[in-house]
Amino acid sequence: MRRWTLIGLFSLIFSVAVMLLAAIGVGELLTGAVPTAVNSLSGSLSSNFPVESVQIPLSARAGDTEASVHGWLRRGMHGGGVILLVHSIRSNRVEMLSRARFLNAEGYGVLLIDLQAHGETAGDRITFGARESEDVEASVAYLRKAFPSERIATIGVSLGAAAIVLAKHALKLDAVILESLHPTIEEAVKNRLRLHLGEFGPSLSPLLLSQLSFRLDLTPEELSPITRIGDLNAPLLLISGTNDRHTTVAETERLFATARQPKEMWIVPGGGHFNMHAYAGRKYEERILDFLERYLRERDRD
Known about the structure:
The chain is an alpha/beta fold. The chain contains ten helices and ten strands. The chain folds into two domains: 63 residues, no CATH class; 222 residues, Rossmann fold. Helix content is 40%, strand content 17%.
């Protein structure tokens, strides 16, 4: 009897150790930097979509006086407006190229950036929008200085959307488009664990969340866009897909209910948690252009 008790105890300790190691491993995977040399691609773009490589000083990042946000700038027509494009997690500015092309074809200037710990922007860890929000703030300030007479909007996808919402200082924007944005970090983690590990997955979320808090020195509340989306003081278009298993329609509706007016929501039939432009194509372009036309081009509306 004692032998079986010891075996059971050993099995329990072993199982707990495995779960802890798994949580540590997943935490490392989720927060690890993903540097990629993307600036060399600017040469290959020069023939059909020439861009200017820019480095935006980032004075807010403590301990690094030379920190900067790397990006590509493509100018548009005077008075047409400028759009900041912010990519999703574990990606870089290249993800936003298809959006940049159709927007620029309509006369909009575009700035595509690498968030910290992504692409060519330095960073030790992905912080789910917290430190990345500093990159967004610096980029908006850069655009305001470089294009003082233009109206400015931003499109953020997933992590990029969170970085916009979690900005610590008010962003002086004329329109905001957020795609595939989670309301809380707890729901984001649970949904992803369920997706990859089945119904057992969410039970591991406390371990993973504690890992994230430890690694990033941030509380879950500091990483939850729903607590900050009401601070956005610009017209909002919120986009999600009916088949998004990372962020559900119900979660998107809660975000929408919390946001200020004027606001719109577009739930894309069949859309998942991926590049919504690639999925919806021309319908996506029409919806985005209609929204931007109303808030960046109709100057006599005030």
